[in-house]
Give the backbone structure.
Amino acid sequence: MNTVLRTELRDRTAVLTLDRPGQLNAIGSETASRLKQALADIRANDDVRALVITGAGRAFSAGADLGEIESFTTPGQFRDFVGRLTEAFALLEDFPKPSVAAVHGFAFGGGLELALACDLRVAERGTRLGLPEMKLGVLPGAGGTQRLPRLLPPAIAKQMILTGEPIDAERAHALGLVNELAEPGGALKTAEALAAKLTAGAPLALAAGKRLIDYGLGMDLEAAIAYERETVAVLFCTEDRTEGLKAFRERRPGDFRGV
Ligand SMILES: CCCCCCCCCCCCC[C@H](O)CC(=O)SCCNC(=O)CCNC(=O)[C@H](O)C(C)(C)COP(=O)(O)OP(=O)(O)OC[C@H]1O[C@@H](n2cnc3c(N)ncnc32)[C@H](O)[C@@H]1OP(=O)(O)O
């Protein structure tokens, strides 16, 4: 069986590589299962503070495995397929460690949806990002219709979803969908450099910051501010807070232990 996913630990960053280059890293049930297991392993590893997801070969991912989808004979099979895969997306989005998608070549369909479930995105110039499901007679089924309009102006997201036409990395960066542009061949290196900045943070503050931003967006402002205040109060009682102030006074990076 071909390896569909590789995990490498590089200092405090885990690099997950979708590894089906012959099929442009199309994501099937096997990939999703391996990704879920990899996320569980990384979550349990306190030495890992950030996650980078990238693709082998000439693409990030061309989306859900159309060969596998074509093999389905009942709507229930597709519903189960999407359900299993989108469950993994929820794991990724609620992951307590920040994630960066290193995107190149193509991020289409479920591939873009995977990148949207990451916290940050780095894309090489010339990368094409799109949700072509409409051209297949289906819809983005792993969060694309919900996450894209939360990251792009809704009218731009609607145009991408209803036309199925991709945009390039330069336009995605100008619109704020991509955090950093990289030169051709440089997405992974740029993403790892961004992840290294994230790993300098205190683990509890990183997890709480992600949660506050993600959940706060869906709350009314007054409740969200109260949520922030409570969270800040809890973090004030951590050893990491004491270490952070001590490190500042001693002009050195904080040595945070997540306690
Ligand atoms: C941690 C959490 C992660 C959890 C798992 C993530 C789940 C993701 C899945 C979500 C579930 C479904 C919901 C989703 O919204 C539905 C979809 O994604 S539908 C698929 C959408 N994608 C597409 O329509 C893109 C299809 N591909 C293309 O248009 C073109 O290949 C391309 C990308 C424009 C590139 O074109 P070319 O450069 O010409 O390359 P080829 O077309 O010749 O392709 C090369 C080779 O790859 C095979 N291939 C390409 N795309 C797919 C694919 N999606 N599935 C399977 N195989 C694919 C292609 O057949 C060629 O293979 P060969 O014929 O040479 O054997």
The pocket of LNIPZVSO is lined by residues 23-24, 26-27, 32, 35, 39, 62-67, 82, 85, 88-89, 92, 106, 108-110, 113-114, 132-133, 136, 140-142, 144 (CB under 6 Å).
